[in-house]
Specification:
Length: 205
Amino acid sequence: MLKSGETSLIHMLTTELEIDELKRAYQLLNVPYSASERAINQAYRRLIKRWHPDRYASGTPAHAEATQMMKLINEAHSQIANAPLHNYDEQTAAAQRQTSSGARRSSRPDAGTTYAHDSYAASMYANDAYVTDTGMERGRVGQRIAAGFRFVAGGVFGVFVVWAFYIALRVGGHPVLAAVLIIGGFVGGGVVMLRSGSNIRWGRW
């Protein structure tokens, strides 16, 4: 069985959802919340004139768009034809929501309570890049795999950098120098990528 506070919360949420739906209808008809029934009907007629499907050739994208817009306009007008938000005050409603939210928080038995182990854990692990959600350091196997990927990526980039010189040496009849150059580019690029890594330091993986 729902308590009175829970019932009030459900009612408030339902009311807010209904108000949000009405607000969307006002926005679609491009009228302020304070608009009278007459102003709403005038805006409705203007939009009907603007989006009537008869103004567009049948079977065209414009006709399909106008048909969809007419449906939305008619639905919006049916929701707000009697100006339901004419006396609606956004600031007052926001203040009421804040008051209700504060009352709900204060009714909780643990409201305002800070647990020592929570703050301790947060201070322990907030700035640790190697700690997972279980509070344990990543295994060195994972670090080595990541280092291997970085080495290969750096090596590929190094090959790309020296590729033009490699082709020139091959064309010039120096295959041995070309091979040395390509190997050096791969190894050099991999080493540079490893040394620039933020998680693995050279000589520690």
